[in-house]
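Data availability excerpt. The first of two example chains:
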Amino acid sequence: MDIVSLEVAIDLKRKEMYASAEGRELYSPDVVRVSQELDVLLNLYNRFNY
């Protein structure tokens, strides 16, 4: 995965997280799952840059 694809994936996952959090508690299992998936993408992104 190149950096541009990773940035797109992060943006999409972030939007998914916001959508899943709408109307739910932030500790809802669905919100936490998507947040953890976003964390993985962000960690990969950080490896590219540092």
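And the second chain:
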Amino acid sequence: MRCTSHYMQTRSTSSPIGSAWSEFKAILRAQEACSVDTLKRALSPALDAIWAQNVGAWF
């Protein structure tokens, strides 16, 4: 199966939400979550990888 790439802005530093979303997308890209099944498996570990100290640094 081949992944299809869609443009997603890589970094938005204008808000803490943008920073969190950017980090989350980078983790999913690194895990190569290209299908619905692999995306479902990658979501929880990606969310777990964003720690409280990361969130504190974005504010």
